[in-house]
Structures are given as structure tokens and as C-alpha cells.
Amino acid sequence: xxxxxxxxxxxxxxxxxxxxxxxxxxxxxxxxxxxxxxxxxxxxxxxxxxxxxxxxxxxxxxxxxxxxxxxxxxxxxxxxxxxxxxxxxxxxxxxxxxxxxxxxxxxxxxxxxxxxxxxx
Length: 120
Known about the structure:
Blueprint: H1 3-29, H2 60-84, H3 86-113
Helix pairs in contact: 2-3
Subcellular location: Cell membrane; Membrane
GO molecular function: NADH dehydrogenase (quinone) (non-electrogenic) activity; NADH dehydrogenase (ubiquinone) activity; quinone binding
EC number: 7.1.1.-
């Protein structure tokens, strides 16, 4: 066995033992307020007594807007390197980017026609 493997395994075991001992020590040294009334109450965004139930359903529109944002936000990741290397790519790169932007524009038209961005 190589010395690097032995050293790595000793470090791995030492880190594991340190973590276990820290968690065990915090259980005994830290405060123990398991049955505290304040600890078991609901606290949500500064409101101590929330109104309504937590089982409400969200509209699908929230998810459609989020996915649309991600779709059109990722295009920036592809456009940044293209904008930096536009002189090296020449007309061929410009043509490819027009195709890419055309597909994204077609997707935007599709989303607009399906009325995914309109709120009722």
C-alpha cells in the first residue's frame, strides 16, 4: 500500500471522528429545550400567527414563468462566448447565432400564443 493512501485514509477517519465527537459534545453541552412552547410555534416571514392552512395549491402559472425565465436566461450563457469570439467566427458564426436566436424567438412566440405569460 502506498503512503499517500494510508495518509488519506487516516485523514478521512480523523475527520469522521472529529465530526461525530463535535455533534455528540453539542448534544450534551448545548441547551436542551425540547418541550418549549415558543420553540414549537410556527414562525413564517415575521408572522407569528399565520392565517389559513399550509395546504394551499399554487397556480401552474408560477412554474411556467419560472421555466420560461430559465429557458431564456440560459441563452445568455451561449451568447456571451459568441459575443467575445465574433470576429474569429466570422459570417458563419453570425449565421449560426441568427438561427439560434430565431429558434428562441419562435419559442417566445409559442409561449405568447399559449398565453403562458398572461395572468388571469
